[in-house]
């Protein structure tokens, strides 16, 4: 069976598997389903679907979402991103425009009529 859409291939999984919690020797439960869980998260994030639309093959959507949130709060995703972003050969590093912030005054462009104090237009 080939790789399903939005899922990690073997090379991608090998790069991040050691960075994730749940390895033998880590405190707590062993994450035997880490790859399935990460693929489920990627399915939601890449498809733009709601968590409740997560296919059943990835598990119960509430469980996957809860674990995703716990990993967010624990900084797991940030650590993975930092390691992948530090790789000089990374050809696919992109910044989503939804995280780029601009000051509210950046919305108004230069030009147009300038207004002096008290609402009176300036003379050219």
UniProtKB/TrEMBL annotation:
Superkingdom of the source species: Bacteria
Residue ranges annotated for the Insertion element IS402-like domain, each copy included: 8-81
InterPro entries: IS402-like_dom, Transposase_6_like
NCBIfam families attached to this UniProt entry: transpos_IS5_3
Name of this protein: Transposase
């Amino acid at each position: 069976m080939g790789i399903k859409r939005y899922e990690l291939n073997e090379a991608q999984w090998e790069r991040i598997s050691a960075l994730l919690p749940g390895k033998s020797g880590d405190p707590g439960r062993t994450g035997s389903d880490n790859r399935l869980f990460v693929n489920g998260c990627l399915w939601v994030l890449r498809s733009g679907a709601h968590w409740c639309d997560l296919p059943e093959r990835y598990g119960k959507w509430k469980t996957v979402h809860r674990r995703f949130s716990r990993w967010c709060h624990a900084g797991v995703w940030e650590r993975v991103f930092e390691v992948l972003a530090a790789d000089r050969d990374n050809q696919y590093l992109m910044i989503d425009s939804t995280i780029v912030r601009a000051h509210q005054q950046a919305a108004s462009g230069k030009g147009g009529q300038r207004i002096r104090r008290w609402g009176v237009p300036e003379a050219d």
